[in-house]
Amino acid sequence: MPEKKNIISISHVFAGYSSGKKENDYVLKDISLDIREGSSVSIIGSNGSGKTTLLRVIAGLLRHRGKVLFDQKNIDTMTRKQIAARIALLSQVSHVYFSYNVYDTIMQGRYVHNSFWGDYSRDNKEIVDETIETFGLSQIVDKKITSLSGGQLQKVMLARCIAQRSPVILLDEPMNHLDLKVQAEFMHYLNEWKRNGVAWADGKKYMPTIIGVFHDINIAARMADDVVCLKDGKILLSGEKKEVITSETLCDVFDFDIVSFLRDVWAM
Predict the structure, then answer these.
(1) Measuring CA to CA, which residue among 81, 153, 89, 87 is closest to residue 111?
(2) pLDDT at 85 over 70
(3) Phi, psi dihedral angles at 65 (to 5 degrees)
(4) Is 88 exposed, middle or buried, given 0-12, 13-18 or 19+ CB atoms closer than 10 A?
(5) Between the CA atoms of 224, 225, 230 and 233, what dihedral angle is there, to the nearest 10 degrees?
(6) DSSP characters for 178-201?
(7) What is the pTM of this model?
(8) Sheet containing 28-36, strands listed edge to edge, beginning at the edge strand earlier in sequence
């Protein structure tokens, strides 16, 4: 099997809400990281370690020093629409500002592919219909999203990301406050998309790639091929899951013996 190429390359990035006068003022401090096409990457670390800041930099939402490349193209040279065609972002849903129905919300994922006149093509409509069927949302397709439960709403938002057909999906703690059944469904849909999904950009076909921030170590481990450990805005360790997620590493990352704690919980 040929070696996977890097789809995201981050080089010497400093970013965050700071004066920028000194390197230590930044949230992220000299981050360099390569993410392979077709991989699933979990980013872990304690609160304030820079996890969300890193995702926002990759999504082109935060100014930074250094370079972030998508398939060797600098995202700083791209428009918002061009970035969205390559990278989709799903955060934890806490507020809904517009009362769209489910169908129109998922169709928003096709915005980057619509025509100059703003009309949605037959292909766009077919992709949305297929996504609705895949996610089992046919029964609620006409409901306003303001009437949905938290789990239903987050499923709709994930469906919108999948319908976007961007090669990379960024997940910023999307499963917080979801019950275990919904979390399991969520992971199933993501794994199915990664296994069978189709993603295109610049006329090229890409293997879907997932980059996620998770508080729950169990979810992070289940989702990941590779794990990136952040601490104080720096990469403490990164690599394949089986090599990174060890009791020693987790203790270093969180300053806390997580493995012993979980053993005690399950021993109760």
Answers:
(1) 81
(2) yes
(3) -95, 150
(4) buried
(5) -100
(6) --HHHHHHHHHHHHHHHHH--EEE
(7) 0.92
(8) 28-36, 6-15, 64-70, 73-74
Q: What integer best gives the mean pLDDT of the chain? A: 90
Residue 129 identity (one-letter amino acid): D
Q: Report whether pLDDT(1) > 60.
A: no
As given in the structure block, the two tokens for residue 210 are: 């997932």
- The identity of residue 52, as a single letter, is T
Task: Give the tokens for residue 211.
Answer: 């980059």
DSSP the chain: -PPPPEEEEEEEEEESSS--SSGGGSSEEEEEEEEETT-EEEEE--TTSSHHHHHHHHTT-S-EEEEEEETTEEGGGS-HHHHHTTEEEEE------S--BHHHHHHGGGGGGS-TTSPPPHHHHHHHHHHHHHTT-GGGTTSBGGGS-HHHHHHHHHHHHHHHT-SEEEEESTTTT--HHHHHHHHHHHHHHHHH--EEETTEEE--EEEEE-S-HHHHHHH-SEEEEEETTEEEEEEEHHHH--HHHHHHHHTS-HHHHHHHHHH-
Q: Does 141 score more than 90 pLDDT?
A: yes
The pLDDT score that the predictor gives to residue 3 is: 64
Check if the beta carbon of residue 227 is closer than 8 Å to that of residue 41: yes
| Token couple for 20 | 């920028």
Query: Higher pLDDT residue, 178 or 24?
Result: 178
Q: How confident is the model at residue 118 (pLDDT cuts 50, 70, 90)?
A: low
pLDDT digit string, tens, across residues 155-195? 999 999 999 999 999 999 998 878 889 899 999 999 999 99
Residue 226 binned pLDDT confidence (cut-offs 50, 70, 90): very high
d(Cα 19, Cα 36) in Å, to the nearest integer? Answer: 33
